[in-house]
Amino acid sequence: MSNGDAKTAILQRIRAALAESGAAPLALDRRYDRRPLRGPGDVDRFTETVDEYRARVHRIDEPDIAATIAGLLAPGGHVVAPADLPRWWVDGLEVAFDDPADPLPIERLDEVDAVVTGCALGIAATGTIVLDGGTAQGRRALTLVPDHHICVVRADQVVDTVPQGFAALDPRRPLTFISGPSATSDIELNRVEGVHGPRTLDVLVIG
């Protein structure tokens, strides 16, 4: 019996057993929490859940962005950023801007101390940051290759739930979901960081 035939047979037996039980099908509400936001999301909860993922959270005011970013780097630190990142965020730093028309080589991205980006939104319930390749976010490689990611999240970009997040996003865009620094575990649950992304994540929550 092929895998397809075996699957069909199993499903048929399950349907037959359910039919014999006489139980009425359970109606589930699939709308979940898709209500539009009324005001900003829960920024306090967002910072707490981000912190639980071992990311470093910094709640600051907008004028402090440049000084905070500089303080997260060693003297003379070299960063990379999307070409449309606000220049004043990285004022005084040595910066290589990644232009989509002339992208930096992967080897160059691997040499920098950090990447600085904005984001599309943050999700309070899960501490997740979402990038969609929009303004101040750049291409995927930009946030996957450098070992340190500094991400700026405005308070008005925070939503409360995952369904609200998906409702606010364009599914046709290249979506990247970030919940803490890159990490994985082997069969013995030994945590290894930096396997498929930055080992260090600093989140600057503005406002």
Structure description:
The protein has 207 residues and is α/β, with parallel strands linked by helices. The N and C termini lie far apart (61 Å). Strand 5 and strand 6 form a beta hairpin. Strands 1-12-7-4-2-3 form a 6-stranded parallel β-sheet, sandwiched between helices. A 4-stranded mixed β-sheet has the order 8-5-6-9. A two-stranded antiparallel sheet has the order 10-11. The chain has 6 helices and 12 strands. The protein has a single domain (38-206), classed as NagB/RpiA/CoA transferase-like (Rossmann fold).
Please summarize what this structure is.
The chain is α/β, with parallel strands linked by helices and 207 residues long. Helices cover 26% and strands 25% of the residues. It contains six helices and twelve strands.
Topology:
Layout: H1 3-21, H2 43-52, E1 56-60, H3 65-71, E2 78-82, E3 94-98, H4 106-111, E4 114-117, E5 121-123, E6 128-131, H5 140-144, E7 148-154, E8 158-159, H6 162-168, E9 176-178, E10 183-185, E11 191-193, E12 200-206
Biggest sheet: strands, sense, closure? 6 strands, parallel
> Secondary-structure element order, as H and E?
HHEHEEHEEEHEEHEEEE
Q: Order of strands side by side in the largest beta sheet?
A: 1-12-7-4-2-3
User: What count of structural domains?
Assistant: 1
Sheet-strand content, in percent, reads 15-25%
Compute the CA-based radius of gyration: 22 Å
CATH topology: Rossmann fold
CATH architecture: 3-Layer(aba) Sandwich
